[in-house]
Specification:
Chain lengths: ~110, ~110
């Protein structure tokens, strides 16, 4: 099993749609989790941290299920500007290195 | 506040040439990282430095060397560039364990 797995997509959705991305991780000892966003030919940027109780930031909601080793990101009311690749990130190892999934590509259409 | 700064932004090399990619951060972060990103491969860790004075290999270290010059700067060197090293290189830093990383805007390197 890969350390962090994501559906590569692409997810093609109309503006205003709700879309959900899922991610699974293999290391049950992982303590910290993040979602990053990467625009085409740009650097990854932190979108939000993921907390055990779930957390929301505007139209974005992140959930963590430790028992299933599963992380999700929900985007409501999609905007054209949400088009990007979304990277699931897990902190692992003794040095606390970040382990990146390969990303899920989202394309929001008018 | 510049964050993480990488130079150069673009470079074309011939096979066998050497090159150093520079990275500097002004956030007083302890840890610094070098990644490469290739289509379909995601981000792969080349080397990292958990603190000033230490460096460790990541997933794909072959063909690269690094230097943590001081707390701010972490350079990546290609001693004898190969076409397989054509990629986008990202430097990142973070303050401590369990914190997110901050990325530079990348160096696009082509080796002919």
């Amino acid at each position: 099993r890969k350390e962090v797995e994501q559906d590569p997509g692409p997810f093609n959705v109309p503006e205003g749609a709700t879309v959900a991305f899922n991610c699974t991780y293999s290391n049950s000892a992982s303590q910290s989790f993040f979602w990053y966003r990467q625009d085409c030919r740009k650097e990854p940027k932190l979108l939000m941290s993921v907390y055990s109780s779930g957390n929301e930031d505007g139209r974005f909601t992140a959930q963590l299920n430790r028992a299933s080793q599963y992380i999700s990101l929900l985007i409501r009311d999609s905007k054209l500007s949400d088009s990007a690749t979304y990277l699931c990130v897990v902190v692992g190892g003794s040095q606390g290195n970040l382990i990146f999934g390969k990303g899920t590509k989202l394309s929001v259409k008018p | 506040n510049a964050g993480v700064t990488q130079t150069p932004k673009f470079q074309v090399l011939k096979t066998g040439q050497s090159m150093t990619l520079q990275c500097a951060q002004d956030m007083n972060h302890n840890s610094m990282y070098w990644y490469r990103q290739d289509p379909g491969m995601g981000l792969r860790l080349i080397y990292y430095s958990a603190s000033e004075g230490t460096t460790d290999k990541g997933e794909v270290p072959n063909g690269y060397n690094v230097s943590r010059l001081n707390k701010r700067e972490f350079s990546l060197r290609l001693e004898s560039a190969a076409p397989s090293q054509t990629s986008v290189y990202f430097c990142a830093s973070k303050t401590e364990n369990n914190q997110p990383q901050h990325f530079g805007d990348g160096t696009r390197l082509s080796i002919l």
